[in-house]
Amino acid sequence: MRVLHVFKTFFPATVGGVEEVIRQTVLGTQVSAIESEVLTLGESSCKFEFEGIPVHQFRTTFRVAGMPVSLSALATIRKLVSEFDIIHHHFPNPFGDLLALVAASSGKPIVSTYHSDVVKQEKLNAVYEPLRERFLRRVSKIVATSPQYLASSSVLASHAEKVCVIPLGLPIESGLSSAGETEIGSLRLGGERFNLFVGALRYYKGLHTLLEAAAISESRIPIVIAGIGKLREELEDRVEELGLKHVHIVGAVSEGEKGWLLRHCEAFLFPSHLRSEAFGVSLLEASACSKPMISCEIGTGTSFVNLHGVTGLVVEADAPQSFADAIDHMASDSVFRMECGRNARSRFERHFTSDKAAESYVQLYRSLLR
């Protein structure tokens, strides 16, 4: 069986959650004799391999509201699709919707993993809606990544009869490596207690809430914020303004450094406050490292990974006092922390490994061909 994954970006040009989902799905399904390739857009048209995965990259001709469009991909999609049994589309990707509809004349089944609603671009979403609905009506199966997102998305609700749930996953050995560094940039942590946030510094991550919570938290445990993004300068200014000597924004970290931070932190902080945070792969990484988590209720997969009172605490979104209270509760109750951490790892092994996700996709692919 041959599967073509379609998304607007892919490694090594970009590094993101959807790209990692595609990578894990491709590698995980290989053991079941499924050959997968990737169609993506970039600065030039070429074919190459990334970690043994064949990638068809088409040159971006122009952009519409930031969305890449490739005329060469449109011209050749029918021919390319003829070589595959299934098209695996990753949503949201408006140009990918168009490509899939053009290729639909081949009659090949289309699977669409629904990573997120279109949240930020509300006005453009109204223009996009006719294309989106035509595409979703044509899709053979839609995959939601959590029951919570399926229940809270009005778009998915209108196509509920063809939706199934397959959670995201990471390799079972995630977080277990002994590699890593004890010095992150100029920050020497040693044996000091600290809480951790890891992720892109984006508008929906709720980092303003985290900083305000840090200012009113009584525990004053150091907080490490690791990641890059457009908000870094703004966050650094806010840290200085609030006098948060115990908050350290360390920027980009290597995989080894991230692993060390995850293994040695006391709790993982995830203050995302908007539905653009559809799942939270960083929560999986924390779970794999047996860490208790604090996250916000936003009606998405974050509350599927982090169960309130079981693997950590789930608080009201965009509420600094509630987040600060959770930080203080976690800091003061070591028994609760340890129990949540054990539960997090156990839940990760039961529900969120890449092997389980890949097995579910294999079953889905086979059912569509039958």
Question: What's the short story on this structure?
Answer:
The chain is α/β, with parallel strands linked by helices and 370 residues long. It is 41% helix and 22% strand. The chain folds into two domains: 2-169 and 353-369, 3-Layer(aba) Sandwich (Rossmann fold); 183-351, Glycogen Phosphorylase B (Rossmann fold, 3-Layer(aba) Sandwich).
Instruction: Give, in spatial order, the strands making up the sheet with the most strands.
Output: 3-4-2-1-7-8-9-10
Class by alpha and beta content = alpha/beta
CATH topology of the largest domain: Rossmann fold
CATH architecture term of the largest domain: 3-Layer(aba) Sandwich
Radius of gyration, in Å, reads: 21 Å
Low-confidence stretches: none
Q: Approximately what portion of the residues adopt beta-strand conformation?
A: 15-25%
Shape: globular
What CATH first level of the largest domain would be assigned? Alpha Beta
Give the end-to-end Cα distance, rounded to a whole number of Å: 12 Å
CATH superfamily of the largest domain: Glycogen Phosphorylase B
The beta-strand count equals: 18
Layout of strands and helices, then pairs:
Layout: E1 2-6, H1 17-29, E2 35-42, E3 46-50, E4 53-59, E5 62-64, E6 67-69, H2 71-81, E7 86-91, H3 94-103, E8 110-114, H4 122-138, E9 141-144, H5 147-152, H6 154-157, E10 163-165, E11 183-184, E12 187-188, E13 195-198, H7 207-216, E14 223-226, H8 232-242, E15 247-251, H9 255-264, E16 267-270, H10 281-288, E17 293-297, H11 302-305, E18 312-316, H12 320-332, H13 334-351, H14 354-369
Parallel strand pairs: 1-2, 1-7, 2-4, 7-8, 8-9, 9-10, 13-14, 13-16, 14-15, 16-17, 17-18
Antiparallel strand pairs: 3-4, 5-6, 11-12
Helix pairs in contact: 1-14, 2-3, 3-4, 7-8, 7-12, 10-13
